[in-house]
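User: Please fill in residues for this 115-position structure.
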């Protein structure tokens, strides 16, 4: 993750287990019943990160009821997006420099360039 963070063995083991499950999935026969489940979890994690962490917490773009906050917060956690406080802090720090000369994104192309 970050240079100053300590190594977290629990997260490391969870990520290794997820990789092993991915390898085991190679030998599992795919069935169409899995497709809506995959799509639902993908949307849940994606909206948890983009809608809840980014638009709601970072930019405070709108309000939502408590049950919906919990639902999207759980989705971002399932997606391993990290804790909301760190995510929001990092993203707000990103916005401090995103529209200045110190950013690594060229606005004409949106490709990363060396600084």
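Assistant: Residues filled in for all 115 positions:
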């Amino acid at each position: 993750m970050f240079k100053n963070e300590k190594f977290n063995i629990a997260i490391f083991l969870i990520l290794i287990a997820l990789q092993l499950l991915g390898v085991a999935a190679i030998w599992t026969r795919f069935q169409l019943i899995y497709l809506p489940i995959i799509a639902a979890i993908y949307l849940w994690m994606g909206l948890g990160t983009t809608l809840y962490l980014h638009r709601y917490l970072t930019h405070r773009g709108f309000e939502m009821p408590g049950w919906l906050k919990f639902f999207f917060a759980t989705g971002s956690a399932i997606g391993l997006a990290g804790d909301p406080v760190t995510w929001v802090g990092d993203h707000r720090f990103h916005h401090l420099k995103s529209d200045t000369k110190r950013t690594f994104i060229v606005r004409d192309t949106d490709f990363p360039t060396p600084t």
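For context: The chain has four helices and no strands.
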